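Reviewer 2 asked us to include a model.

Predict the structure of this chain.
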Amino acid sequence: MSYALRGFSVDFAQRSAGLKAIPVRTRLVRPNDDLIALVEAAVAGIARCGDVVAVSESAVAIAQGELLAAEYVRPSRLAYALSRRTGALATINQPESMQLVIDKVGTWKVVSATIAHTLARVAGRRGTFYELMGDAVAAFDGYTGTMPPYERAIVFAPRDSNRFAGDFFARTGIACAVVDANDLRKAKVLGASDGVRRDVVEAALLENPHGNSDEQTPIVVLKWRGDTLSPLFEPPA
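Predicted model (structure tokens):
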């Protein structure tokens, strides 16, 4: 496996000079893959002890079989109406994804969150719907149309991200984080092996070196090349 011919110098407040992000290309991840073995092979010769291997949450979810073809979902009129109002960049802007949210939490909770969102918008506040729905919305990634054969697949949240990251560290000796990052300068660590500074990893991935299209780079290796202790890990007690 070879890593993508691009690198990212990370720029954030916490003494970041020397922190590098290297995207790593893999073959297509498939359901029931041994993703730890796949990632280990991909980062061989690139990652080492002291680095953090950041793995896309979508790759983990797909390997776990946590996805569903949109054709198997029958959206209601409510799902169609709401999905048209979420905005083009929302993860639930397809009626099928919105229907899964409705199925998860119930029609009345979605309707009440929509009413609260509408009233908040009148008062000049945005994002109320997403705040009220919380994990119910975060649990789904809408289909993107960028990566066959998953262009019409709804990908769910991965199961037990902390366990995956811990198992990766136990097998390889390299720290790991499962991350949800996008092109909106948002990144969240869903799970990590012991000692990883989640806030630093999130800051390092704000530019989304994973890519959000068909780059096929679900892995980013974070390396510290500074003269001080690595900010990627909690300092020793």
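Residues 1-46+53-66+158-172+202-226 form one domain. DSSP finds nine helices and nine strands in the chain. We have added this to the supplementary material.
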